[in-house]
Amino acid sequence: MINRYSREEMAQLFSDENRFNAWLKVELLAAEAFSEMGVIPKEDVEALHKNATFKIDRIYEIELQTRHDVVAFTRAVSEHCGDEKKWVHYGLTSTDVVDTAYGYMYKQANDVLRKDLEAFRDVLKANALKYKDVPCIGRTHGIHADITSFGLKWALWTDEFNRHLKRFEMASKDIEAGKISGAVGNFANTDPFVQDYVCEKLGLQSTHISTQTLQRDRHAFYMATLALIASSIEKIGVEIRHLQRTEVSEAEEMFNKGQKGSSAMPHKRNPITSENMAGCARVIRGYMTPAFENIPLWHERDISHSSAERIIFPDAIILLDYMLNRYAKTLENIVVYPDKMMENINLTHGVIFAQRVMTRLIDVAGISREEAYDLVQPLSQKSYSEKISFNTLLHENDRVVELLGETGIDACFDLNFFLRNVDVIYQRVGI
Question: What Gene3D superfamilies would the database entry show (predicted)?
Fold first, then answer.
């Protein structure tokens, strides 16, 4: 991932240095396992721990000749060892090291992403509590529909990210796995004890069965989970973008001192971070295709998945880490305009209360739904088209006054009615 969309903490986890360190860790743990079995002398394992190291430039240099990165790595490591070098990569095939090391690297990355997700969810929860009692207009199809609480938007997103955290734990467990089962997965040259030993030491799941590779349904599920999370971030961004439109102006991203919105229009304050999230989410969703296409490999192994994975997994993980951190700050500092929300509630001259009036005519006055509908509809249409107060028209209609009374009409316009179950919803969400 390019530096613009990378945080140093996560980018470092996918550096060549960390990758080779993970390979070396697998190699040394495998040697320990063979030593536990009595195959490798204890003193040779001690020598490996003392001497086995690498220089990245030397690995690159050897790879130019071998055209094989693992071979280049093992030879570069062996150059630092004495007679114990004969045990470097003993009993292993390349993918034993690479796939298990990737599982370890993903585990490191997941520890960061988990904190990111929890922090992001906590920002949503804080805003849900902050705006719980702020009324705003709810919209369906982009059109005014009914009155709701601005906090319910945040509560909804909080619940969504609680689900993401559960899915993330499932997907993380799947991908934090290792295999050291040999060239075709039959453990012919390496006892299953070695795999179990290495995976336990690395905190990974030791797979029940594999070919030369881990099965890529694990990786596809993980990528799909990252894409779901990114899509929910974009979903929130779409809402903020709509709320920031000039015609709506109910909320907006904070505009920092010295920030510029346009090179040509000095008045512009654009929802740039929310739009940035949309673009980033598209990239991560795009990586789902190669992740799923990596599942079918030829027989016990081919490397058609390898080139794609070197790109898509570091990119997606680094990018999602960036998205969660950047947008959490944006949402934490979101600027909200409750007065504008109230203005928009009244934008249609009270017609938004038409459903409430109709319902009261049915359950209080006792008339049929058809009669109530036919009584309210022409008044609401007249209010909307002629920009006349709906409340006024109701008070001027003898039939409505007869059925509901003056105070009964006014009661239909009580905002608290629309927020009466907000606390119940919050309890269901766990806020």
Answer: Fumarase/aspartase (C-terminal domain), Fumarase/aspartase (Central domain), Fumarase/aspartase (N-terminal domain)
Looking at domain 93-342, its CATH class is mainly alpha
Q: Which two tokens stand for residue 300?
A: 């016990």
Q: Which residues of the chain have pLDDT under 70?
A: 255-268
pTM: 0.93
Instruction: Check: CB of residue 390 under 8 Å from CB of residue 354.
Output: yes
Q: How many CB atoms lie within 10 A of CB 195?
A: 24
**Per-residue tokens: 237:** 């961004």
DSSP string, 244-260: HSTTT-SEE----TT--
Domain ranges across the chain: 8-90, 93-342, 351-412
Active site residue 141: yes
Q: What is the pLDDT of residues 417-431, one digit of tens each?
A: 999 999 999 999 999
Task: Say which of 15, 68, 262, 368 is annotated catalytic.
Answer: 262
Find the helix or strand (DSSP H, E) in which 213 lies: none
pLDDT value at residue 328: 97
- Contact (CB, 8 A) for 151 and 198: no
Q: Which fold has domain 8-90?
A: Fumarase C; Chain B, domain 1 (1.10.275)
Catalytic residue among 141, 208, 267, 299: 141
**SS3 (DSSP) at 224:** helix
Residue 256: predicted pLDDT: 62
Retrieve residue 177's tokens: 């796995």
> 266-292, pLDDT tens digit by residue?
555 788 999 999 999 999 999 999 999
pLDDT at 257: 56
Task: Fill in the amino acid letter for 56.
Answer: I
Q: Which two tokens stand for residue 345?
A: 């509630």
**Alpha-helical regions (H) of 150-190:** 150-175
**Residue 26 and residue 198 in contact, taking contact as beta carbons nearer than 8 Å:** yes
Give me 289's structure tokens: 């295709």
Q: Cβ(30)–Cβ(347) under 8 Å?
A: no
Q: How far apart are CA 92 and CA 180, in angstroms?
A: 7
pLDDT at residue number 269: 79
**Any bridge partners for residue 144, and if so which?**
139
Asked whether 283 and 319 are in contact (CB, 8 A), the reply is: yes
pLDDT, residue 329, reads 97
Sequence length of the chain is 431
Find out whether 226 and 116 touch, Cβ atoms under 8 Å: no
Secondary structure class of 177 (helix, strand, coil): strand
